Amino acid sequence: RRHGGGQERLDIDEVEIAAPMKDDELLTVNEALERFSQHAPQKAELVKLRYFAGLGLKEAGQALGISEPTAVRWWTYSKTWLYQAIQETRGPAKG
């Protein structure tokens, strides 16, 4: 009962979000990914395998010939880089 009562834990990076993206948001993500490809081509490939092909970190790592821990590090770095790039594109938040 303690610590979740036997519920199954999920890795947040493995959870699929079924919310469709608006066209302008998709364009922004694509543009950021293109810039990221210039900065870190192998890491950008990992993002493409995860985001577009739907592979998990283990499978994407195998496809790229890297270990799962390396894939986790690359994924963390890539998400941060892309988030910052998208935020810069959007400009300062209004509020």
Descriptive account of the structure:
By secondary structure, the chain is mainly α. Helices cover 62% and strands 0% of the residues.
Q: Label the structural class.
A: mainly alpha
Order of helices and strands: HHHH
Q: What about the largest sheet?
A: none
Low-confidence stretches: none
DSSP helical segment count: 4
* Cα shape: elongated
Q: Tell me, rounded to a whole number, the average pLDDT.
A: 81
Rg, nearest Å: 16 Å
Helix fraction bin? 55-70%
Distance between the termini: 43 Å
Number of strands: 0
> Approximately how much beta-strand content do the residues carry?
under 5%
Offer a quick outline of the entry.
The protein is mainly alpha-helical and 95 residues long.
Brief descriptors of the model:
95 residues, mainly alpha, elongated
Ordered list of secondary-structure elements with their pairings:
Elements: H1 23-39, H2 41-51, H3 57-64, H4 68-90
Helix pairs in contact: 1-2, 1-4, 2-3, 2-4, 3-4
